[in-house]
Amino acid sequence: MIRQDYDLSACNTLRLPARAQLWGEFSDVSELLTLLSAAAASHWPVRVLGGGSNVLLAGDIPGLVICPRMAGVQVLRQTAEFSWVAAEAGLSWHDWVVQSTAYGHGLENLALIPGTVGAAPVQNIGAYGAEAADFIDSVTGVQLSSRQLRTLSAAECRFAYRDSVFKRELARDFVITRVVFRLPRQFAPQLSYGPLATWSATAVVTPQSLIEEISRIRRSKLPDPQQIPNAGSFFKNPVVSAAQAAGLQREHPQLPCYPQAGGDVKLAAGWLIEQAGWKGRWSGHAGMHRDQALVLVTDGTAVYTDVERLQQQVQADVLSRFGVQLEPEPQLF
Ligand code: EPU
After folding, report:
1. Does the beta carbon of 12 lie inside 6 Å of ligand 1?
2. pLDDT of the residue at 104
C-alpha cells in the first residue's frame, strides 16, 4: 500500500522535519518490484530509507520513499570454520548482532550501532576495531535503473572506511534486500581498542560479555538517539598524508594519529573539533555533544539549515586551525 504525504520526522534519528510525497513498505522482493513498477509507471523518483540513523533530511522528498520491513535470518551453509548466514535488510542491526552469535563471531564489537542490516554495507559501519566489511560475503538487492535483482560479492562492494559502491556508482540506484555474512565459528575476540584491552585483562571474555561491554562503552560516550536526536559520528575521521600528519603532530603532540595500510594517517576528528572549541558548544538548535565532540546533537526542534550552519562553522574552524577539511558522515537524503 502506498501512503501519501508521509511524515518522516520520526523516521530519522536527527528528527529533522520532512515529509515524503509517497511512502511504501515492502516485506519481500515481489512487493518491492510491485512498488518499483508503480513508481516507473508514474515517473516517481525512488529513495530507500532504513533506520534513518545516517541521513540528513534537507526538506520534503518528492516521489516515493520505500522502506524494507523483512527481518528474517537464514543459515545458508556451514563448515567447521565458517557459517554463511543471510540476514534481511529490515532487521535491526543490534538484534542481528545478538542473533549472529548463535552461528559465529566477529560482529560483537558492532553491538548497539543504530540502524538496519540493509544500511550496514552502505557506509560499512565500524567500531572498536571491527568493520561490517570484515564479515560480509555478498550483498543482494534490486538495481533501480534496471529493476533487476543483483548479488554483489564483497570485492564488488568496494568497501573502504565508511565507504562502498552503494555510496558511489550505485548511490540512489540500489535497494539492498539482504546481506550474507561469513562468520568464523571460533570466537577470537578483537580486543585491540584501548578500553577493550584494559577490560579484557581482568574480565571473562565471552561473546555475551563482549556485547555488554561494547554497549556499556557506547552508552557512556554516545547519546541515545531516543533521548537526544543525533546520527552518531557526524564527521568521518580525516585521512591525511604521512607528511601532513607529522607536521601536525610536531605542533600538537597530543593529536591522536592512526597509521593506515597505504602509508596515510587517520586523525581523530573528535580531538580536532574539541581543540577547535566546539565540544559541548551549540549554535542555535544544534550542538556538538558534550561527551563526544564528533557527534552532532539537536534540541529536537532543529531543521536542516540549523544542522548545515553548525556543520559549516565546525568545518571552517577546524580548517583554519589545523588545515584539515572534515567531511560529514551522514548522507544527504
Ligand atoms: N577525542 C577527543 N575528544 C572528543 C572525542 C574524541 O579528544 O570529543 C579523542 C579520544 O580521546 C580518542 C580519539 O579522539 O583519543 C578517538 O575517539 P573515540 O575512540 O571515541 O573514537 P572516534 O574516532 O571519535 C570512531 C568512530 C565511531 C566508533 C569509535 C570507536 C568514526 C567517524 N567514528 O570514533 O563510530 O564508535 O571510533 O571505534 O569513524 C559512527 O561512525 O557513527 C561512530 C560512532
Report:
1. no
2. 98
